[in-house]
Amino acid sequence: MNPPSHVAIIMDGNGRWGIRKKNSRKFGHKEGLKTVEKIIEASIKKKIKYLTLFVFSTENWKRPSNEINYLFKLLKIHIDKEIKNLQKKDIKIKIIGNINPFPKKLKSKLRSIQHLTKQNKKIQINMALNYGSREEIVSTINFLKKKKIPINEKNINNNLYTKNIPEPDIIIRTGNTNRISNFLIWQSIYSEIFFVKKMWPEFNENDYNKIINKFSRISRNFGGLSD
Predict the structure, then answer these.
(1) What value does the CA radius of gyration of the chain take, rounded to a whole number of Å?
(2) Sign, CA torsion 129/183/166/142
(3) Inter-axis angle of helices 65-88 and 25-45, to 10 degrees?
(4) Cys-Cys link to 185, which of 38, 133, 198, 205 (CB 3.0-4.6 A)?
(5) Does residue 165 belong to any structural domain of this protein?
(6) Cα-Cα-Cα-Cα dihedral sign, residues 8, 117, 162, 76
(7) What CATH number does residue 162 fall under?
(8) How far does CA 155 lie from the centroid of its chain?
(9) What distance in Å separates the CA atoms of residue 38 and residue 58, rounded to the nearest whole number?
């Protein structure tokens, strides 16, 4: 058996599912949060230590402003609702991405929840917010150049948003789209990638467990030869 320590998920298909069900992208985003809660619980059961969720990308600013504002409102409400549960369940929240452009109140809540949960140890949830892998790599290299730090793999790794986080063993993308869309490009060179036809609100614990079990049977040689 080869259990993963880090699973990363591109939670695609909320809007399309919402249109199909209720003619409302907002409904899809709201229902998608229920799937987030289920997958966090499933990850805890599987003793997965890191779960990274692609919540809002640098490209998502291209969406209509009313949808963006709804996503921010939903995130703010969910933080308020879940803060006690995060502490009770020993869940640590880590923000990866540049949240400076976010509304002031939302930024404050995100930074607060990250601070309040920093000592929690059962699982670390990395929330990718205003995250884009190209932006991450470029800003890291610019930082190294500014500080006159040698540009090499080790120094880039140590200054990414994901510093001190192991590279993902598994990347899952729902929504019947077979690409990784500017997500963890640097970190995913040896990740096993699973594309799922189901929309994110349809994805369930059984689907997740099937992927984890399939991963456990994969021989990972990282460029070497199998035994």
Answers:
(1) 18
(2) negative
(3) 30
(4) 133
(5) yes
(6) positive
(7) 3.40.1180.10
(8) 23
(9) 26
Q: Print the domain residue range for 43.
A: 6-215
**Cβ(89)–Cβ(57) under 8 Å?**
no
Q: Give the tokens for residue 11.
A: 């939670």
Question: Mean pLDDT, to the nearest integer, of 127-136?
Answer: 98
Q: What is the DSSP letter of 166?
A: P
pLDDT tens for residues 161-219?
999 999 999 999 999 999 999 999 999 999 999 999 999 999 999 999 999 999 999 87
Cα-Cα-Cα-Cα dihedral sign, residues 182, 183, 188, 193:
negative
CA distance 79 to 73: 10
Tell me how far apart the alpha carbons of residues 64 and 39 are, in angstroms, rounded to a whole number: 28
C-alpha span between 132 and 2 (Å, rounded): 29
Answer whether 31's CB lies under 8 Å from 18's CB. yes
For the chain, the domain total comes to: 1
Residue 15 resides in a domain = yes
Residue 220 lies in a domain: no
Q: Assess if residue 47 is contained within a domain.
A: yes
CB neighbour list of residue 55: distance below 8 Å, 6 or more residues apart: 11, 75, 127, 128, 129, 131
Show the tokens assigned to 135. Answer: 């932006």
Q: Is the pTM of this model over 0.85?
A: yes
Tokens 């500014």 appear where? 146
Asked whether 100 and 58 are in contact (CB, 8 A), the reply is no
Structure confidence at residue 1 (pLDDT):
55
How much of the chain exceeds pLDDT 70, in percent? 97
